[in-house]
Model the fold of this input.
Amino acid sequence: MAAVSAELAVGVVGAGTMGSGIAQVAAAAGHPVLLFDADPQGATTAKGRIASALARLVEKGRMGGPERDEVLGRIQPCADLEDLGQAALAVEAIVEDLAAKRDLFAALEGILPRNAILATNTSSISVTAIAAELARPERVIGMHFFNPVPLMALVEVVSGLATDPSVADTVFDTAAAWGKSPVHTKSTPGFIVNRVARPFYAEALRVLTEGGSDAATIDAVMREAGGFRMGPFELMDLIGHDVNFAVTCSVFDAYFGDQRFTPSLVQQELVLGGYLGRKSGRGFFEYTNDPGRPSPSTAPTFHPPGGVSVSDLPGLLGPLLASIKDAGIVIRTVAGQSADLVLDGRVAIAITDGRSATERMAVEDSPSLMLLDLALDYTTATRVVLAAADQTTPDDLALASGLFQALGKSVSVFDDVPGLVVMRTVCMLANEAADAVNQGVCSATDVDMAMRRGVNYPLGPLAWAERIGVDRVVQVLSNLASSYGEDRYRVSPLLQRKFHARGALL
Ligand SMILES: NC(=O)c1ccc[n+]([C@@H]2O[C@H](COP(=O)([O-])OP(=O)(O)OC[C@H]3O[C@@H](n4cnc5c(N)ncnc54)[C@H](O)[C@@H]3O)[C@@H](O)[C@H]2O)c1
Done:
């Protein structure tokens, strides 16, 4: 199936943040672009914004002057919707309102050629519902771009119940021809990214609510141990709590109150108080006097242990052993040792399995137990999280901190919350990704690509689950389910099946 040919016109309706980005990308790919906005000045103003964006590209040497002129010359602001009559593809980026989108598409059906494709950039409305009352619902599809459109590679190509598969293939190929990374998905709440990303915010909000740590420290841990570009709290402050909370509530309602998507009371309070984030000068953090990024809490420096015993199957911490040795700490291998590391024969360190350290120490025959949170790569992580069981002493925690400090890492001490923060977030992201695949919303490779390209995750959630072990993910989720007694942490049937079959997710 071929893309919409570059000689054919693309109509863009709604010349706001998204519409102007879509017009820019379509024109850069060679299409004549017909741009319309309900506001009479809207399309002309948008063309001015695009001209400024292209001027910046020329300044940076990423685009030549003549090319800039050609791209701009292809964008034609239109005074009337009827001016879109020659468009082979129309992309709608108007207000997020079902009635408005239905009215617009009904009008476009009467204006555009019969075989034109009508695409919506909606983030949260059912594509099936938008198409429902039209004469040709099979020509309607979601073409969901991410903000800022010229920079973000992902496009979710969203098929509604009536969408003709050949229309989906054409839009997929067209997005690829525009230099984007398209993925096929079905019209389900949140599509892929806005659904699978919910735990990134939700688990951090829960750890904060339960006093596991403060927002600045959780952000630092998610960046420096988890490898995410931004922490969840600074990202929510950037997106705006009104917008982020509304998306969470809409996904929660759309899934009929599934506990996996329960919104946070902490975030609701911010919205009610008008603490909307950067745009209002205050969210989780203050922005008015530009005080910069707040400091995470970091443990003071302690002495390292003299010796560490490791299991003969060192698992995820195996790659750290060389650095421990380089730090002058004696390593001894002990067959069958259950803890990942035992320091000076008296303090055990284990990667979290979704139970609290306090529970684990009570039921396991363990010396003083410290839990370690997940890191994307323990050798390169610059910060790690430790939590002490209630039965331990401050000296025990100091010894565990001293080990990681000797390896050049900062240590953040959390309260003993189950699953800490990186591990529970990654396991819940993988769980949601697996459920989306299990429900036929997208393929396993597409969900991983969508999360890397749409929200810049350092690894796709399913690849991450493979890396840490599906058995471990299932164990963490099952332990969280029993710690909280909530349906929220139920394990996706796909993960359970792969766990029993010892099968690969990808
Ligand atoms: N902003 C984002 O990050 C983002 C990301 C993905 C998808 N979306 C979706 O894209 C769409 C547009 O979002 P936006 O952020 O660009 O909004 P925006 O407010 O910046 O722009 C919307 C534009 O549409 C115009 N408009 C409104 N009703 C119209 C109508 N009936 N006919 C013609 N023009 C009309 C408005 O005058 C405005 O210029 C929404 O459906 C939104 O959910 C937004």
Residues 13-19, 37-39, 42, 93-96, 100, 104, 121-123, 145, 147 surround nicotinamide-adenine-dinucleotide (CB under 6 Å). The radius of gyration is 26 Å. The domain at 196-212+214-293+422-506 is CATH 1.10.1040.50 (N-(1-d-carboxylethyl)-l-norvaline Dehydrogenase; domain 2). The chain has a mean pLDDT of 96.
